[in-house]
Amino acid sequence: MAKDDVVVFTGTVEDKLPNTMFRVRLDNGHEILATVCGKMRKARIWVNVGERVRVEMTPYDLAKGRITFVERKRAATDTPAQ
How many CA atoms lie within 13 A of 70 on its CB side? Predict the structure, then answer.
């Protein structure tokens, strides 16, 4: 594998820890420590407990990861915009 190869998983944020660390439970049942990626820090995107996230992990250390995307639920509107 090349150095840039990553494994992408989705999961749910279980706990918020100090120093922008989060405990994330992946869809396959594993629990990892994850931090927010640099672009999300720069754009000041917040991550809250209970949100679905996409996590990138290196194949060499499957206990830590990097949150790269937060899936937010959008509020549905009853009437379309005109």
Answer: 21
CA 14, 63, 5: angle at the middle one, nearest 5?
115
Q: For the whole model, what pTM was predicted?
A: 0.82
Q: Residue 43: which region, alpha, beta or left (left: phi > 0; alpha: psi -120 to 50)?
A: alpha
Q: Which residues of 63-74 are buried (b: 16+ CB within 10 A; e: fewer)?
A: eebbbbebeeee
Please report which confidence band the pLDDT of residue 14 belongs to, taking 50, 70 and 90 as the band edges: very high
Q: What was the pLDDT predicted at 55?
A: 97
Does the CA dihedral 15-62-1-7 come out positive or negative? negative
Provide the 3-class DSSP secondary structure of residue 40.
Answer: helix
